[in-house]
Amino acid sequence: MSRPLADRIRPRTLDEMVGQRHLLGPGMALRNIVESGNIPNLIFYGPSGVGKTTLANIIAEKTSKKLYRLNATTSGIADIKDMVAEVGTLAAPNGILLYLDEIQYFNKKQQQSLLEYLESGDITMIASTTENPYFYVYNAVISRCTVFEFKSVTAEDIVPAVERAFRVVGEENGVTYDVPEDVAYAIAQAAGGDVRKAITTVELCSMAAGAGEGDPPVVSVGTALIEQITAKSAMRYDRAGDDHYDIVSAYQKSMRGSDPDAALHYLARLLEAGDLPSAIRRLLVCACEDVGLAYPQIIPIVKSACDIALQVGLPEAKIPLADAVILVATSPKSNSGDQAISKAMSDLAAGRSGPIPRQLQNKHFDGEDQEVKGQFYIYPHDYPNHWTYQQYLPDALVGTQYYEPGPNKNEQAAKAYWDKIKGNK
User: Fold this and answer.
1) How many other C-beta atoms can be found within 10 angstroms of the C-beta atom of residue 158?
2) Facing residues of 111 across strands?
3) Residues 208-226, mean pLDDT to the nearest whole number
4) 3-state SS string over 76-145?
5) Res 407: pLDDT
6) Do residues 357 and 391 touch, judged by C-beta distance below 8 A?
7) What whole-number distance in Å separates Cα of residue 49 and Cα of residue 153?
8) Rounded to an integer, what distance in angstroms lies between the CA atom of residue 206 and that of residue 162?
9) Which residues contact 87 (CB under 8 A, 6 or more apart)?
10) How many CB atoms lie within 10 A of CB 29?
């Protein structure tokens, strides 16, 4: 079975790589490091299909060290021991270059087994990961490495790779592929920043497009074929990975930032992935945290919309959720409630508390140690406007103010009412 097209046309030089200009453009730090030939321990972090493995291969070609390739999903301590056994021998006189893919799947013991050799320079490691290394790689390993973040590749940058892939597969098949610019761009855009996915799409097109006509044969690749092959392929999503957390973060921040269009975009990405629970959870949180007391009626409204979404399920759930997302995004905002409870919990965590005032306790019997008998609770409803002064906070916190009314109309109206009742100025 032949190797996949994406592997057959993998770039062999820095100039052949697409994207990552912030790392590999002229004068950029990582390009200078690679061209110097003095390779330190590196961690490449970023989504799949953006050039991490390709760059590691290019670096391996530039070094005189013996190359070891390990994938942390299938390798273990025994593989590390086999590699370490060659350190300082004639099998690896110049040391070892280890390319460790998916390092996040190595446990702490496995990662620590490399530390001594990374420190001494006997092993130079290039590790790659699709997850944030500061969460998944142990600090002792990170401190011995330099981390470079790879970005999703833009559609504009992927287009040349698509065109090159059609040329190569055409030469292999003995045909010419007629690919209009808009079709090449559609393939690049549908890849969602993943160059490998775009090349795989080209390979599928070459299989599905037929033998062509003429001598030599010409095969026309149109948008209809691309739409069939790339349906639902453009979105990255992993419910346990960075992509998930990036999407739900952008979703809530767009609602908080009062941008209904962006909020709907991220809602659509969640629903396309079938992640109804995350869409609902963040929507409920945003209604309480970010709209809150500026429009308190929104909380039961959004809760009802979420209940409807759960009851009808996908795909119809998109309708009540879209209504609720637009409502949250376009409503006035206040985080005064969130700030107030955060301040109260900070005081509690710092030990600022104290006994509950006697008049608020749920007691009906005074012990012999109680100097002043009686609870002395004042019932507010017995007084004009259903309010009279009494102490509610513990003695240690008297005068503390957690809640600061927001500048919105709703909270300012409530403030004005109670200022008048309580005689505040």
Assistant:
1) 28
2) none
3) 80
4) CHHHHHHHHCCCCCCCCCCCEEEEEECHHHCCHHHHHCCHHHHHHCCEEEEEEECCCHHHHCCHHHHCCC
5) 92
6) yes
7) 9
8) 12
9) 95, 96, 117, 122, 123
10) 12
The amino acid occupying position 399 is G
DSSP for 197-223? HHHHHHHHHHHHS-S-BTTTTEEE--H
Please report the pLDDT score of residue 1 as a whole number. Answer: 44
Residue in the block written with tokens 């503390």: 400
Please, are residues 363 and 380 in contact by the beta-carbon 8 Å criterion?
A: no
Distance of alpha carbon 23 from alpha carbon 44, whole angstroms: 11
Residue given tokens 């290019």 in the structure block? 58
Compute CA distances 263 → 226, 256, 259, 292, 299, whole Å: 28, 9, 6, 18, 18
Residues in the chain: 425
Model pLDDT for residues 99-146, shown as the tens digit of each residue? 999 998 888 888 888 888 888 888 889 999 988 888 888 888 998 899
Give the model confidence (pLDDT) of 365-392 as tens digits: 555 666 665 567 888 898 898 988 988 8
* Six-digit token string for 72: 């942390």
